[in-house]
Write a structure and sequence with these properties.
Low-confidence stretches of chain A: none
Helix content of chain A: 55-70%
Radius of gyration of chain B: 19 Å
Distance between the termini of chain A: 40 Å
Order of helices and strands of chain B: HHHHHHHHHH
Number of helices of chain A: 6
Largest interface: A-B, 114 and 126 residues
Order of helices and strands of chain A: HHHHHH
Largest sheet of chain A: none
Distance between the termini of chain B: 42 Å
Number of helices of chain B: 10
Radius of gyration of chain A: 18 Å
Oligomer: heterodimer
Largest sheet of chain B: none
Strand content of chain B: under 5%
Number of strands of chain A: 0
Helix content of chain B: 55-70%
Strand content of chain A: under 5%
Structural class of chain A: mainly alpha
């Protein structure tokens, strides 16, 4: 039962991303061509709403269900990892049209060839794990 | 009901995504989909050989459950909550894609030119999906997060590293679409 709430959150996430068309390769392409406001509107209002929700919970000192103050994990310091890793991610995102959330969701819509992208992404993650210590972070 | 069956506007979708992020944080977790790729490596036994995957993946079962839900959500949305999969793209985008050899643009979620069984049976088609997926998996772990972890969660919590990562996402995306696409598809 303790996993049920996560299942429900996942289902809602899947529905929202399909209904918003954010899972579409075409929308990603259009975004990088700056030919539509749609994706910018989604990301922008998500961040705006997110800032408000997190600031309110900070001001009101809201506890999470484990009884601790609501908090977001801090990202590690660094520069190279963010700019180089981010750029590599962007190249793959634009080519495949799928980032790690939509990949799974697209399988649910019945497009099984996306499993190839998922398998390759797992391989990419694995290779990063192997050469991690040789990369600038 | 009709409004639900039509595509949802950005001003509905964006705030809903923020609420999904917030609810996961409220549950004492975080919104990060790419972490599941690392978990899947660990489940496959990668931890025996590579220290990066040597962690208690069972602590991540909640996130795999979110993934399972996302697959189900994708199924429900596509089969029961959509009357059309036509995407209302900018005509300029459709025209640009037509010049790159893409037909029926916007009539499905993903282009047949990349994701049909015919496409993946060609060396070029298969390579595109493998290279794209590999870069996403490698890049997201190198950068420590993806669209959900950096663009939504990281920027909502005003973290500078996430801003740098998102700038990287766009840099990579722009290079791919504007410089590499004309070379790959012509």
């Amino acid at each position: 039962m303790k996993y049920l709430k996560f299942l429900i959150v996942g289902i809602i996430f899947g529905i929202v991303l399909v209904k918003s068309e954010a899972v579409s390769w075409y929308r990603i392409y259009e975004m990088f061509k700056f030919e539509s406001f749609h994706m910018y509107g989604i990301i922008g209002t998500a961040i705006g709403t997110g800032i408000i929700l997190l600031q309110i919970s900070k001001q009101l000192k809201i506890n999470n269900i484990e009884g601790e103050l609501v908090h977001v994990p801090k990202k590690q310091k660094g520069l190279f990892r963010y700019i180089i890793g981010g750029t590599l991610f962007g190249l793959g995102w634009a080519l495949s049209g799928a980032c790690p959330g939509p990949m799974y969701i697209l399988v649910g819509t019945g497009i099984l060839t996306v499993l190839i992208v998922i398998a390759a992404a797992i391989l990419g993650t694995y290779v990063y794990g192997i050469i991690k210590n040789k990369l600038p972070h | 009901m009709e409004a639900i069956l039509q595509p949802w506007p950005w001003y509905v979708s964006g705030p809903l995504i923020a609420m999904i992020m917030f609810i996961l944080i409220y549950f004492g977790k975080t919104f990060g989909m790419s972490s599941n790729l690392r978990t899947l490596c660990a489940i496959g036994g990668a931890g025996k050989k590579v220290a990066f995957f040597n962690f208690d993946w069972k602590s991540q079962r909640w996130n795999l459950t979110v993934v399972l839900g996302a697959v189900i959500g994708g199924f429900i949305a596509h089969h029961y909550l959509s009357v059309t999969t036509n995407i209302d793209l900018n005509p300029k985008t459709v025209e640009a894609l037509s010049q790159l050899g893409f037909e029926n643009t916007g009539q499905s979620l993903l282009p047949d030119e990349l994701y049909s069984w015919d496409a993946i049976l060609s060396i070029k088609g298969l390579s595109i999906l493998i290279i794209g997926g590999f870069l996403v998996g490698f890049g997201t772990r190198y950068a420590g997060g993806c669209t959900s972890g950096h663009a939504i969660t990281g920027l909502s919590s005003l973290q500078l590293p996430s801003l740098v990562a998102v700038i990287g996402f766009f840099l990579g995306g722009l290079i791919m679409i504007h410089l590499l696409f004309p070379l790959i598809f012509s």
